[in-house]
Design brief:
71 residues, mainly alpha, 3 helices
């Protein structure tokens, strides 16, 4: 199922404004629930979590910066 350009644009905005801050809050709470690791391990955890969210949502953000192909 292919999403139209306008739908993908609106969905991308919703993800960036609502879902990503919620993901950050949940990630911080989960990491803080464990004993604090060394600074290098903690950095790797946050970098990993910062990159992982984008992979399942790549189809939404692909081509958003381009002109509307439906126009």
């Amino acid at each position: 199922m292919a999403l139209r350009y306008k739908t993908r644009k609106r969905l991308a905005l919703l993800i960036l404004v609502v879902a990503l801050p919620l993901y950050i809050i949940v990630a911080l709470n989960v990491v803080s629930a464990f004993e604090r690791p060394s600074i290098l391990v903690e950095l790797l955890i946050y970098v990993g979590l910062g990159v992982i969210w984008a992979f399942p949502l790549k189809f939404v953000f692909k081509g958003i910066g381009q002109p509307d192909p439906d126009a």
